Structures are given as structure tokens and as C-alpha cells.
Batch of 2 targets.
Target 1
Amino acid sequence: MISEPTRKAESGATVPPAALSHACWAEVDTVLLDLDGTLLDLAFDRYFWRERVPAAWAQARGMSLPQARVQLTPRFRACEGRLEWYCVEYWSRELGLDIGALKRSEAQRIRWLPGARDFLHKVRALGKRLLLVTNAHPVSLAIKDEHVEVMRHFDAGFSAHSLGAPKEDRRFWHELARVTRFEAARSLFVDDSLPVLRAARNAGIGRIFAVRRPDSSAAPREQTEFPAVDAVAELL
């Protein structure tokens, strides 16, 4: 899956407000950005996995929607933090549904988060290297790119599935560094997942920010372990 059926924010000590000065931006060469919940509205993924998939599964099995949710929830949770959690092919096999086709049927719900596209234009104007780093399966990424043309804003994009480990895993960051040769200390990373943010910190990423409002259909998340913004646009 993408960043969905999600529970992504606990916390520790208080951190200072999220603001990047011109001097700080001068020390950043590479900007690493998550996709769902950072650039694109996580409301799509929340709806898809909590409503659309259970409804399709219930219909295929002649059961009620509440019954389907009861049966699917533990199956989803058992995969959290693993690459299968985000895998279109895995869930298509497991559920007997064409997850890619279902996503395409709901593509009109895919939306940019407020200010995200403008932020990408501004970062490009600063001459920074822009890398998309996502747990999204290539099929999911392709559907979203077809709908909102996200990849045109990036120098390159990397799915966890092509690197062999999810972003929560240190192996993802090791492999990303190997294939892109980015300098961790001079990089900025933004994500909405606390486990992913922690993994990025352990990988030595120099500047890390959390997103408090990844989902327009939900309340903001409390975030005190990392500097946080409501939206990436606040960083410029």
C-alpha cells in the first residue's frame, strides 16, 4: 500500500518551530520528498483502503461492509512496516482483487496538498536536486503521475520496491545513497511518517521535517519529535 491504513505520529521532546532561513537553504544540495501525505493528499489513500477496497471485497464475497472491515483490518495491520504493506501486486493476490484497476477507477480523487506544486517550482528555481522517495508501489506511482504529473517536477524518483526495502528500513537509505550518491548531511527530507522520519535521522539526513496535515479529511497530527509544518509550502 502507500501510506495507508495509517497511524503515524507519536512523540518525544519538544522541537523548535519549523522554518528554514536562506542561510539554511544555502547548505542544502538535495531535497528528498515523500509522495503521499507530503505532496499528495493522503485522503485518497485513506478512502481507498478504508472504503473502496473493503466495499469491493465485501461485494465479491457476498458479505456486509462491516464484516469485510472486521476481516481485513488484522490482515492489513499484520503487514505494517513491511514492503508488502505498500505492494499492489501482493494485495491483488491476497484479496483476489485488481488493486491497480480499482485505483484507476478512483483516480479523480487524487489531489495535490495545498501549496505543494508551488513549493516544487520554488525549490527547482533555487537549483536544488529534487528526488522523490516513496514507499508507493510503481503501479500506484504511475497512476498518480498520470493524473497529476508529479514526476515532471523531479530529477529522479525512487520507489522502495525498486530498492528492496521500505523507507522504515535502514537498507532503503543505504541503497538510496549508493544509487544516487547524495550527501546526507547536505540533504533535506520531508515525510509524514514517524517511523520513516526516524529511519532518515538514523541515516544521517541533515535536515528533517514532519508534515502535520497529510490528510485533508482528518485533524492535524501532533508532532513534537521533529520540526513540523502543516504543509511543505511553509519551508519556503
Note: The chain has two domains: 22-42+111-235, 44-108.
Target 2
Amino acid sequence: MISTVVGSYPVIIQPPKTRKNKLFNVIRGNDKCKTAIQHSVKSQVKAGIDIISDGQVRGDMVEIFAKSIPGCKIENNTCVINSKIFTPYQNIGVKDLKLAIKYMKQELNELNISSKDKKKKGVKGIISGPSTIVQSSKIGPIYKNKDLAIIDMANALKSEAIALEKAGAKIIQIDEPFLSTGLIDMEIAKEAINIISKNLTVPVAIHCCGDIKNIFDNLIDFNVDIIDCEFAGQPTNLDVLDSYSTNLKSKKIGLGVIDTKKQSVESVEEIAMLIEKGLDIVGDKNLFIDPDCGLRLSSDEIAFKKLKNMVEAMKLFN
């Protein structure tokens, strides 16, 4: 089993304390989010997470991408697609990924862990999915058919996936929470995901929220290595997973074992019970253990405790 996170983490921006650090901050462009990334990375590493994220500290999942993709703009906190979608002129998340890798290595060097355990560590590159971005947007007259916008968005995001892989991402994760709503044509969604994942050499994951009963058979056919879903907040998803246990086509499962909608900390025993159910269905070699979704809306203290207990629960099965 490998522990990971879905993506977002509480944003803690810490102002520089020393005169030297204040000067460095000005020289480097006064990027306050760097301290938030560092805090997110430090917290995840200290909690014992194997594959961490940069914390997605620069905004919500749609805004981070839409504001950098030609053809899109943000108006009143909403993405508006007002012209044809093109590939971004520069990478969107590569700098933050590299920062996260740097901070992770610094933290790991201070911990007494084996070389074998260090090899498991890494940072995932995260891309907001084309179907979710388009479905969350206001569409101008250029796209009378949303399906065409989704395909163009996928082609625009392909370069981001390649750049994240080159920058050292351990996994590429595509976030598609809208797939479970029934509003998306799953064939178009599959085509879009396949555009992004084609020819990538690192494992590719797709993250879906909600009830997967009506979409899981489609997800199995997507060109991804890992299917990541909610199981703590959506316990009936375990029944769906069980019904497909003999037909997963070598897919690994991201097992959400922490309910990120709850502002309480699950006990180690509660989490262990859910992990055990996942183990019984797909086995330990096919499991990534993570929260149901991002932790951005949790307090810093609760987010850390949830992750810490998740790792402690995993240790019961080692």
C-alpha cells in the first residue's frame, strides 16, 4: 500500500520573520504562496504521506487552470470561455511542483527513514480535468457544443501533463469530480482523458467524487492506471468496487478512507476498518490510501491529524 493525498491542503501563509528573509522575498517576486507550499509539504511529510501534493494553494481547482489557458478568463469567480481554447503559453503548475519536490527532499533529509522508504516518496502533478473545467464554465458562442470545448481543453492540458512529468512528478492525477453528476457524456470524457494520458510514462490517476455506481464501468476503460474515489463519505462505493473486483483490468484503486466533509478526526481504528475492506476486495498491492477529496476546507490542525491517523492505520497492516 502507498499513502497519498488528493490534492488541496489548508493554505497557511507565513510572513518572513527575519530581515534577510524579507529581502529574499522581495527579490524572488514577493510570492506569498511559497510559504504555503512549504507548510503544506512539511505537514504531509511529517504525517508520513508517501506521495504528497504541493497543496494547490493558489486558488480553486478551476481557477488555477482557467486563468492561464487562452480562450478562458475569470469573471466574478467564474470561468468564462469566450474564444477558442488553445495550449497555454507557459506551464501552469510546474514551478510549484518543483518547489514541492525541493521542500520534500529537505524534510526527508531530516527524518531517519530507510533508502527503501525514500524511494516511495514523491510529489504528484495535478491537473483539473477538461470535463470539469468546461462544465464549471460559462460558454460563449464559439462553442455551441460543449463536447468540442472538452476536447479542445484536453488538448490544451496535454502539454501541462508532459511538463509535469518532465519536472519529476511521481504520478499525474486528473481531477474530474463532475463525472459522477450524470451531466457529462462519458465517451467524450474518456476521449479527453485519453488525449492527456497518451504516451505518459508515469502512472496516471483519475479522481472522481460522489456516487460511482453509474460511471465505474466507464472509468475502467479510461487510459489511466489508478481510479481514485470516495469511500469514507460514500460507503456504497465499496459495493460497486466489490462488484467489479474481478474485472478491474489491472487498474489500481485510490481508496478514500477519510471523510473530508467532516470537521472531526477519524480514529485510527475507524480508518483501519475501511482499509481492511479495501484490502479484502483488491489486495494491498493494488491500493493507494488517501482522503476522499482535498483538505483545503479543514483547519490546519484537523487536516494534519486526519493524515497522521490515516498513516497510523496503514501501519497496522504492514
Note: Residues 2-315 form a domain with the TIM Barrel fold (CATH 3.20.20.210).
